């Protein structure tokens, strides 16, 4: 399993960002990145650990049309959530495993540090060569930036 780590600062309070990444994720994502995510359906569970979400992508996300993700870690006290792709999306584009973990830490009343860890494995081609993946953290950092912008505008 390979791993990439990065960080982002969001000018949003910890509680607001945590709520958006957990309890309100399926409602907030299509509003935060409307050019990429058409809608998010809860197809299993109640939003807690083990829940499965279906992300339906817009044509701008082509060639990806959908991605199913399962909440595989949810630690309220650490403000940590991990979503693992279980079907579609990244798994159709060079990865055999793909999990994104977010850990939030307050660094001020209206600022949160987001630690991001992407754990993944590549598929191998029949000749043994590795299919090169998309840039693993760029889309996640873009999502955090769009989420920050959405939450700041929603509060005003």
From TrEMBL:
<dbReference type="InterPro" id="IPR050279">
    <property type="entry name" value="Plant_def-hormone_signal"/>
</dbReference>
<protein>
    <recommendedName>
        <fullName>Bet v I/Major latex protein domain-containing protein</fullName>
    </recommendedName>
</protein>
<dbReference type="InterPro" id="IPR023393">
    <property type="entry name" value="START-like_dom_sf"/>
</dbReference>
<dbReference type="GO" id="GO:0004864">
    <property type="term" value="F:protein phosphatase inhibitor activity"/>
</dbReference>
<dbReference type="GO" id="GO:0009738">
    <property type="term" value="P:abscisic acid-activated signaling pathway"/>
</dbReference>
<dbReference type="GO" id="GO:0038023">
    <property type="term" value="F:signaling receptor activity"/>
</dbReference>
<keyword id="KW-0611">Plant defense</keyword>
<dbReference type="GO" id="GO:0005737">
    <property type="term" value="C:cytoplasm"/>
</dbReference>
<dbReference type="GO" id="GO:0005634">
    <property type="term" value="C:nucleus"/>
</dbReference>
<dbReference type="InterPro" id="IPR000916">
    <property type="entry name" value="Bet_v_I/MLP"/>
</dbReference>
<dbReference type="GO" id="GO:0010427">
    <property type="term" value="F:abscisic acid binding"/>
</dbReference>
<dbReference type="GO" id="GO:0006952">
    <property type="term" value="P:defense response"/>
</dbReference>
<feature type="domain" description="Bet v I/Major latex protein">
    <location>
        <begin position="15"/>
        <end position="153"/>
    </location>
</feature>
<dbReference type="Pfam" id="PF00407">
    <property type="entry name" value="Bet_v_1"/>
</dbReference>
<keyword id="KW-0568">Pathogenesis-related protein</keyword>
<comment type="similarity">
    <text>Belongs to the BetVI family.</text>
</comment>
